[in-house]
Amino acid sequence: MMSVTHCAIALTTVSVTLGTASPSVLAVSVLGSQLPDLDSTASFVGRALYPIASFLESRFPHRTITHSFLSTGVVAIASLPLCLIHWHYWLALVLGQFTGWFADSFTRSGVAAFYPSPVRLVIPGNPRARLRSHSPAEYWVLGVVCFLAIASINLASAGGITEQFARSFFPDASTAATLFQRYGAERVVVVRVKGLHAHTSQAIDSTYTVIEANSQDLIGQEEISGKLYKIGNAPDVQIRANRVWSSLGGAVAIAAQEQSLQEIGVGDWVTRLKPSVYLSGSLLLEDMEEIQIPLELESYPALRVFGGQVELSNAQPAQISALLGECWITSGQVIVKERTYAESRAGVGGVSGGV
Amino acid sequence: MFGAIAEQLDVPTVSDDDRPRALTAQQLRESLLKRLKEPETLLIADDAQRWSASLRYWLEDVLRGGGLMVLLAHSPQPKDIFVKLPILELKPLSDEEIRSLMVEEAIAHNAKLDPRELAELQQKAGNNPSLARRIVRETVLGIAELETSQHYQFVDGTPFLLAAVALVSVIRFVGLGLGDKALYVLGGVLTLAAIALRAILYAANRGGRRL
User: Fold this and answer.
1) A46, A208, A216, A233 - which has most CB atoms within 10 Å?
2) Which CATH architecture has domain A163-252?
3) Nearest CA to CA, how far is B173 from chain A (Å)?
4) What band does A346 get if pLDDT is binned at 50, 70 and 90?
């Protein structure tokens, strides 16, 4: 089998099994895939390490000692120090070496996989169905494996096969929620939602930035209006989603701070906050029985009166000021969350996998 | 065959009366039986697996009569004389011995093969000395076909590969256990791919059939 075929097979295997697109890890796997051919001075690695290749060649038949489980065991033990850098490097080398010789069992001569036993491992048993080096069949195999390698690396760099599979074939709120739970602390998660408004039954086709998610539903901020909506299929959502296409945007930094409030005017407190922060928690106000907050049906109710307190859920200072600006806070406990976006928010960025 | 044995053991093949006549097969058998009972007489039979049933039955008579014999056989059938003798199985020749044989054969044909060629050719011969010699002769004649092995020291790894590939169905159960819909469906797709691969490999293993 040609060296390039070994490289492609090792690269694909390591990319799929480790879910990585790291160039250094893949380079190590390619290096590992060449190690079995150390028993031939005609190979690339044999020419690079000529003394070792010459020694092996003069004592062993081709595809025996270096094409065996024994050799994989030796490589696995000898390369253990690579774990000090990262275990991905070690596994990439071992997997690369293993696939390097195992692929040769699909060739006419097979390999002495169980060396020192001279028995050769062949797949399939029918010699006519096995590959010959440089044959058209091998070029077909190389083409298919290269395609798989490119697909695998692309998928790995975009979050992995399962994530891309879910985003492609299951465009729903739970997929977006999973994506937010995985990347929401560092990246902007943007969803395009097609569905119905739960109360007006109007068709919805809009884009939202996810600011919170549980296992099934999202709270998203519409990019145009800045309003919050709960998106999903729970009874209390504003937008019943039929399709939710999720993607990753630019970087975001989230800073959260807990505040305990005692005897302070709402207007006074709100002016000290940045206008872009999100507030969650509860406030006990003076004259609570006089507080009336209109029922919000169109968008997500960020403020509501519950249990003798005002509950805030991702409320923004402007909303609090508009509804409770004249009130006095007796006590309160609030989390102030600030999302700072990087300059660029466009496009689906790559998520580096692996190391 | 009896004649050849008789000649080597100096057993007369003709009668010793006034009008010598060739002994019948039965008479020759009996003469050889008597001769083989004598001390310091050893019958060595090469390629004993090729000997006919009648010769093998005669060997049983020799054995019953106390004669000494060594039978050299390749993959003998477990029957008649072969089940009545202790078996000493010879180990296959080592890689070094096969390599030496190949070098000797090349020298005998005024050819010189470098270690790279020898390593490449040796994988075709396995540990079979006859095959090793023949492959060298074919190479010297320029009719050797690389990558074609004719020895029988191989194991078909297809069932093991299929068993390993079938393990991808574990992904389906992991997805089910974790409640991960994507993993569950992906596991199902991979399981179907494994079943398709099994069908292809089984078809490939059926071998060639003429149209």
Assistant:
1) A208
2) Roll (2.30)
3) 14
4) very low
**What are A192-227's pLDDT values in tens digits?**
999 999 889 999 999 999 998 887 899 999 888 888
Q: Would you say A12 and A341 are in contact if contact means Cβ atoms under 8 Å apart?
A: no
Each residue's pLDDT tens digit, A48-88: 999 999 999 888 988 999 999 999 999 999 999 999 999 99
Specify whether the CB–CB gap between A219 and A299 falls below 8 A: no
- What are the structural domain ranges in chain A? 3-157, 163-252, 253-341
Beta-bridged to residue A333, according to DSSP, are A260, A282
Among B95, B153, B208, beta carbon nearest to A119: B153
> If we measure between CA atoms, which residue out of A212, A200, A180, A179 comes closest to residue A302?
A212
| CB contact at 8 A, A92 and A28 | yes
d(CA A51, CA B14): 68
The C-alpha atoms of residue B49 and residue B46 are separated, in whole angstroms, by 8
Compute how many other C-beta atoms are within 10 angstroms of the C-beta atom of residue A144: 12
Q: Which residues of B21-59 are buried (b: 16+ CB within 10 A; e: fewer)?
A: eebeeeebbebbbebbeeeeeebebeebeebeeebbebb
CA dist., res. A227 & res. A293, Å (int): 17
H-type helices in chain B, by residue range? 2-8, 25-36, 53-64, 80-84, 95-108, 115-125, 129-141, 158-166, 169-178, 181-205
CA distances from A44 to A50, A79, A216, A285, B116 (A): 10, 21, 53, 78, 14
Instruction: State phi, psi for A63 to the nearest 5 degrees.
Output: 60, 45
Is B88 in the A-facing interface, judged by CB distances under 8 Å? Answer: no
What letter represents residue A50's amino acid? Y
Q: Tell me how crowded residue A200 is: count the other CB atoms within 10 A of its CB.
A: 11
Please classify residue A211 by burial: count the beta carbons closer than 10 Å to its beta carbon, then call 0-12 exposed, 13-18 middle and 19+ buried.
buried
Q: Cβ of B116 under 8 Å from any chain A Cβ?
A: yes
Q: Which helix (DSSP H) or strand (DSSP E) does residue A16 occupy?
A: helix A3-18
